[in-house]
Specification:
single chain; mainly alpha; about 80% helix
Protein backbone atom coordinates (compact mmCIF):
# COMPACT_ATOMS: atom_id res chain seq x y z
CA UNK A 1 0.00 0.00 0.00
CA UNK A 2 3.03 2.29 0.00
CA UNK A 3 3.13 4.86 -2.78
CA UNK A 4 -0.63 4.53 -3.32
CA UNK A 5 -3.80 6.20 -2.11
CA UNK A 6 -4.55 3.54 0.58
CA UNK A 7 -1.17 4.30 2.16
CA UNK A 8 -1.96 8.01 2.25
CA UNK A 9 -5.37 7.33 3.79
CA UNK A 10 -3.88 4.97 6.38
CA UNK A 11 -1.12 7.43 7.34
CA UNK A 12 -3.61 10.29 7.60
CA UNK A 13 -6.03 8.26 9.73
CA UNK A 14 -3.19 7.13 12.00
CA UNK A 15 -2.02 10.71 12.54
CA UNK A 16 -5.43 12.39 12.84
CA UNK A 17 -7.78 9.86 14.48
CA UNK A 18 -6.58 10.67 18.01
CA UNK A 19 -8.38 14.02 17.67
CA UNK A 20 -11.73 12.21 17.56
CA UNK A 21 -10.76 9.97 20.47
CA UNK A 22 -9.56 12.98 22.46
CA UNK A 23 -13.01 14.52 22.16
CA UNK A 24 -15.15 11.40 22.63
CA UNK A 25 -13.45 9.55 25.48
CA UNK A 26 -13.86 12.24 28.18
CA UNK A 27 -17.37 13.06 26.95
CA UNK A 28 -18.49 9.44 27.13
CA UNK A 29 -16.85 8.95 30.54
CA UNK A 30 -18.64 12.02 31.90
CA UNK A 31 -22.02 10.87 30.58
CA UNK A 32 -21.75 7.41 32.06
CA UNK A 33 -23.43 4.19 30.96
CA UNK A 34 -26.82 4.50 32.61
CA UNK A 35 -28.80 5.38 29.47
CA UNK A 36 -27.20 2.61 27.40
CA UNK A 37 -27.78 0.07 30.16
CA UNK A 38 -31.41 1.16 30.45
CA UNK A 39 -31.90 0.74 26.70
CA UNK A 40 -30.42 -2.76 26.81
CA UNK A 41 -32.59 -3.70 29.81
CA UNK A 42 -35.65 -2.51 27.89
CA UNK A 43 -34.74 -4.83 25.02
CA UNK A 44 -32.86 -2.64 22.54
CA UNK A 45 -30.23 -4.31 20.40
CA UNK A 46 -26.65 -3.09 20.33
CA UNK A 47 -27.07 -1.18 17.07
CA UNK A 48 -30.37 0.32 18.16
CA UNK A 49 -28.80 1.46 21.44
CA UNK A 50 -25.91 2.98 19.52
CA UNK A 51 -28.08 4.84 16.98
CA UNK A 52 -30.80 6.03 19.36
CA UNK A 53 -28.97 6.55 22.67
CA UNK A 54 -25.18 6.78 22.33
CA UNK A 55 -24.82 8.68 19.05
CA UNK A 56 -27.30 11.47 19.90
CA UNK A 57 -25.47 12.01 23.20
CA UNK A 58 -22.03 12.33 21.58
CA UNK A 59 -22.91 13.84 18.21
CA UNK A 60 -21.45 17.29 18.96
CA UNK A 61 -18.23 15.85 20.36
CA UNK A 62 -17.95 13.51 17.39
CA UNK A 63 -18.55 16.32 14.92
CA UNK A 64 -16.02 18.52 16.73
CA UNK A 65 -13.45 15.71 16.58
CA UNK A 66 -14.10 15.19 12.88
CA UNK A 67 -13.56 18.91 12.25
CA UNK A 68 -10.26 18.81 14.15
CA UNK A 69 -9.30 15.71 12.19
CA UNK A 70 -10.14 17.48 8.93
CA UNK A 71 -8.01 20.47 9.90
CA UNK A 72 -5.05 18.25 10.72
CA UNK A 73 -5.50 16.11 7.59
CA UNK A 74 -5.51 19.16 5.32
CA UNK A 75 -2.10 20.22 6.56
CA UNK A 76 -0.52 16.80 7.08
CA UNK A 77 2.86 16.74 5.41
CA UNK A 78 5.32 14.44 7.17
CA UNK A 79 3.65 11.03 7.26
CA UNK A 80 1.98 11.53 3.89
CA UNK A 81 5.26 12.64 2.34
CA UNK A 82 6.90 9.41 3.46
CA UNK A 83 4.23 7.01 2.17
CA UNK A 84 3.01 8.85 -0.94
CA UNK A 85 5.95 8.53 -3.28
CA UNK A 86 5.17 11.99 -4.73
CA UNK A 87 3.53 10.51 -7.83
CA UNK A 88 2.09 13.53 -9.55
CA UNK A 89 -1.65 13.26 -10.21
CA UNK A 90 -2.01 10.07 -8.16
CA UNK A 91 -0.54 10.44 -4.67
CA UNK A 92 -0.02 14.18 -4.35
CA UNK A 93 -1.91 16.02 -1.62
CA UNK A 94 -2.23 19.81 -1.49
CA UNK A 95 0.67 20.35 0.95
CA UNK A 96 2.87 18.07 -1.16
CA UNK A 97 1.76 19.91 -4.30
CA UNK A 98 2.80 23.23 -2.75
CA UNK A 99 6.24 21.77 -2.06
CA UNK A 100 6.58 20.43 -5.60
CA UNK A 101 5.58 23.75 -7.14
CA UNK A 102 7.91 25.67 -4.83
CA UNK A 103 10.84 23.37 -5.64
CA UNK A 104 10.16 23.89 -9.36
CA UNK A 105 10.33 27.69 -8.83
CA UNK A 106 6.67 28.14 -9.73
CA UNK A 107 6.12 30.58 -6.90
CA UNK A 108 2.83 32.02 -8.14
CA UNK A 109 1.27 28.59 -8.50
CA UNK A 110 2.63 27.50 -5.10
CA UNK A 111 1.18 30.65 -3.53
CA UNK A 112 -2.19 30.01 -5.20
CA UNK A 113 -2.38 26.45 -3.89
CA UNK A 114 -1.22 27.58 -0.42
CA UNK A 115 -3.91 30.27 -0.51
CA UNK A 116 -6.50 27.59 -1.28
CA UNK A 117 -5.28 25.65 1.75
CA UNK A 118 -5.54 28.81 3.85
CA UNK A 119 -9.09 29.38 2.59
CA UNK A 120 -10.02 25.80 3.48
CA UNK A 121 -8.53 26.37 6.94
CA UNK A 122 -10.68 29.47 7.39
CA UNK A 123 -13.79 27.55 6.30
CA UNK A 124 -12.89 24.85 8.82
CA UNK A 125 -12.57 27.49 11.56
CA UNK A 126 -15.97 28.94 10.70
CA UNK A 127 -17.57 25.48 10.77
CA UNK A 128 -15.79 24.72 14.07
CA UNK A 129 -17.11 27.94 15.58
CA UNK A 130 -20.64 27.19 14.36
CA UNK A 131 -20.47 23.67 15.81
CA UNK A 132 -19.22 25.00 19.13
CA UNK A 133 -22.04 27.52 19.30
CA UNK A 134 -24.63 24.92 18.26
CA UNK A 135 -23.25 22.41 20.75
CA UNK A 136 -23.42 24.96 23.59
CA UNK A 137 -26.95 25.88 22.58
CA UNK A 138 -28.02 22.23 22.59
CA UNK A 139 -26.42 21.74 26.03
CA UNK A 140 -28.22 24.82 27.35
CA UNK A 141 -31.55 23.44 26.11
CA UNK A 142 -30.93 20.17 27.94
CA UNK A 143 -29.92 22.11 31.05
CA UNK A 144 -26.53 20.41 31.34
CA UNK A 145 -24.45 23.55 30.75
CA UNK A 146 -24.38 26.19 33.41
Amino acid sequence: ILFAVPGIVLATVFVTFPFVARELVPLMQAQGREEEEAAVVLGASGWRTFWHVTLPNVKWGLLYGVILTNARAMGEFGAVSVVSGHIRGQTTTLPLHVEILYNEYQFSAAFAVASLLALLALVTLVVKHAIERRGDFAALRRGSLK
